Amino acid sequence: SALRVLPILDLPYTQSFEQDDLSYGVVSLNGTAFDIGTSTFAGKSGSRSGNTAVVLGANDSLYAANTTSMLYLPEFDFSEEGIYEFSFFAKADIRDSLDGYRIEYSLNQGADWEVLGDIGDNWYDMTDDFDFRRNNSFEVGTPYFGTSSNDFQEHFLNISELSGNERVAFRIIF
Fold first, then answer.
1. Which has the higher per-residue pLDDT, 8 or 165?
2. Omega within 30 of 0 (cis) for the link into 7
């Protein structure tokens, strides 16, 4: 294993994952890991732009039960007041209403993580109050993306409330 220190980057930031960029990292606690690459399996094949994408188990037809994998993005400088937006395109083949993914942010170099946003147009589509039937890693009542889609969907959220923070980190957790 290796230790990777993610950089602090200026905004705006776009990532196409077309090169082995050292500005992101993957940590998998169990199950299937996020990959940077391509997949030929339905529900996760292709890329919105370029040839590669972030894929949960690019070479696996299905992800393993009880998967917990995280894609860490670099820290960003939000110290200037402004209008900021977090956006991405995604398609997913997941067990609807049972599993899913969400975006989290940290203002203290990853010591604590908070859910980014809530259910809304073009953002999270699920929250679940029935813990007994869920296998994902989210707390009961917290929002997440939990619906499959065969086509790339754009998700975006105004995150201007993070203005004034010098170090803001993000991760995608499945």
1. 165
2. no
